Amino acid sequence: MAAIHITDIEAAINYWRDRSPSPDGITLAPELRALAEVYALMVYHREDEVSEVGFPRKAWAAWIEWYRTTPDTPCIAICSTSQGDDQCKGCGRSFDEVQHWPAMSPAEKRGTWRRITMEDSAWRFNKYAERAREAEHVWPDEPANDTPVTAGD
After folding, report:
1. pLDDT given for residue 143 in this prediction
2. Confidence of residue 123 (pLDDT cuts 50, 70, 90)
């Protein structure tokens, strides 16, 4: 059975902190309390992952609500597994992961996301991410579109 990594628990906690901030700095929303209990036990036992089997019901509901705000698939529509590669150059998933993605549990999908993010070798994380950053870059010396350029400039 799949496991949920502590970084996903942290992300879910931060999601709920933003969504349901404490009114007095002490009281926590029920979703936060449920996730914090799981997180505290993981820290206490020095565990990086917790099995999705036996996950407390309220914590699971809070985690699933956060999970639904994340992208479902790492696919960037450049699938080299369809060309015979064992590992997709576009998203980093294995052929089996691509084929079985719809049937995978949320924890299995997040495990795959974590692995491909940590490997950082797929085009999703380098070539195309780099191009997206370049497209957003605005040079500080460029005049604004509405600023007329004079002959003295």
Report:
1. 55
2. confident
For the entire predicted model, the pTM comes to 0.75
Which pLDDT score is estimated for 144? 54
Distance CA 34, CA 82 (A): 42
Residues 100, 101, 103, 107: is their CA dihedral positive or negative? positive
For 23, 76, 113, the CA distances from 66, given in Å and listed in that order, are 21, 22, 15
Distance in angstroms (rounded) separating the CA atoms of residues 17 and 114? 22
Buried b (16+ CB within 10 A) or exposed e, 98-123: beebeeeebbbbbbbbeebeeeeebb
Helices (H) and strands (E) in the chain, counts: 6, 2
Contact (Cβ atoms closer than 8 angstroms) between residue 96 and residue 102:
no
| CB-based contact 29:20 (threshold 8 Å) | yes
Q: Stretch 92-98: mean pLDDT, rounded?
A: 92
What is the Cβ-side half-sphere exposure of residue 121, based on CA atoms within 13 angstroms? 8
Look at residue 124 and tell me whether its pLDDT is greater than 60.
Answer: yes
